Amino acid sequence: MRRAILLSLIILLSQPLVSATDISTDTEEDAGGTLSGTYTVKDGATWTISGDYELEDNTSIVVEQGGMMIVSGAMDAISPPELQLAQSANVIVPVGNLGESGTMRIHFTSEIIYGINIEINGTSTEEWKDSSEFDQTIGMDVDSIAINITGNTFTEAVISHITLSPQGSAPVIRNAEELSGNGTSVVIPDRQKAWSLDVQGELVVSGSMFGGMISCSGTCTLDGAEMKSSGPIEVTGAISVTNSEFNSGIVNEDITVIDDATIEWINSNGTGGETDNWVKILSSRTIGVQNGYVTFYGYGIGYDSRDTSPLSDNNTFDSDNMGDNQIDIDRNSDMDRKSRIIEWRDGAGNEETEQASGLLILVTPWGDYEHVIDELPRVNHFDVTIDTPLLSFDSLIESDDENGINSRLGVMATVTNTGNAPASFLIDCISNGTDANVGVNVPHTILAKETLEIPMNWDSAQEGELTLECTIFVPYQLENFVVITNGSATTGNVTWSEVEDNSINLVIPISIGVVLAIVLFVIVARSRMKMEMVKEHLSSISVSLTDETEEDSDEDMGTIE
Known about the structure:
- This protein has two helices and 52 strands.
- It is mainly beta.
- The strands form eleven sheets. The protein has a ten-stranded mixed sheet, with no helix packed on it.
- The chain is elongated and about 160 Å long.
């Protein structure tokens, strides 16, 4: 037990002591030194840092709303800085004419695993790797020397310091802050241990800051400031940058402006290169729709002006968001971070604004309904209403109030569409609690702002006093859409009865018709036979007369002598 208590005491005593200091009155720090622990600038107080101070790891400063902090001196992380290199970097090393020649050793912060190229005074070393120290003999009778280092996407080369060893003289160390050049940035070794500054009130900087993590939900003013390895500054309030310099290292941007926050950038220089001066990004980007069957297509979205895949409700597959009828354009992930960037100023100083559009589509059995967004709103959330039909079943009128069973009765349905889109809909009908026979059920197409009359034939096999009730069928894809004002209509009462079979009364008329037809046929046939006989008799008489005439002619003829 005593041993456990002793170990606990040792652990407690080994923990660093962190002090908490409240700045409740106007206070100025001008002597220089070290700041550590937690500092809170209270409402109504002003804390001025006019001296040069080093800040211990994890030092925290909070400027409360109504409080103010002024930095005209220097606030630097106590951790020794390092020189971070871009994929292509030109490192300028001050030599200062140390001697005729000597050895220059480059100390990298870690072993180089993937090969890099190093060129010094025209001498190149290709694919150098598997070490953290690079040596080369150089002439040292110069003011400075340039080192060109080319890496690759798999290597992040960082220099801790450079040692110059002239022949016959003591070595000289050039720390990271003494080095410079294109593609280089002086950075803090471990961002996780950086000191932090949370500005909820007001901050004014005309001095320098190194290695801080700064957030600004209040008002921040940088005027003549030098910001090193202190980016990106996260702004949810307002920031003004004038005549200031940034050297943030390899980060996406120097300043991140979130949602409705504002930025003013005047005559200032950012880190440059691939690092943007600032970007304005949305913390979330969603579209409110009526249901989960609506699909969104985005065009020219965000920083990269990319097109989205088809997106619908809960495309994030998050159970908490299921059924919330919101489409996440960016899925709120780091991978889709650029989809939420709506304005930016790049490393060359060019300011850009997203020019995006979109299309929402709802596919239903009634038809496909679309909503075009010519300019996508650059806000966290906006709602969209898709134009759909709005149907009313006005009436259902029968042609008679009585009818025989198993025979058709004409019924006229009237439907009006007061919506802004057409529909091809079906009508379901029932009578006496069961499906009614009204003929073939086909879709009926009605245009926007149109009234349509639909003729139907009602047939019942059941006797009695019945009504016909018909309803417009609404598909599930239109859930949460208002597409019906009056969805059904009913006829008046119709009496259905069995009709007597009068088929026996037709026998006599049919029989009379048959007899008359036979008599008529006989008369016509006999008449035709008689005419044939007369024609035959006349023909024979004609032949006899012809023969007699010829004989008489022969007898009258003689011979002339």
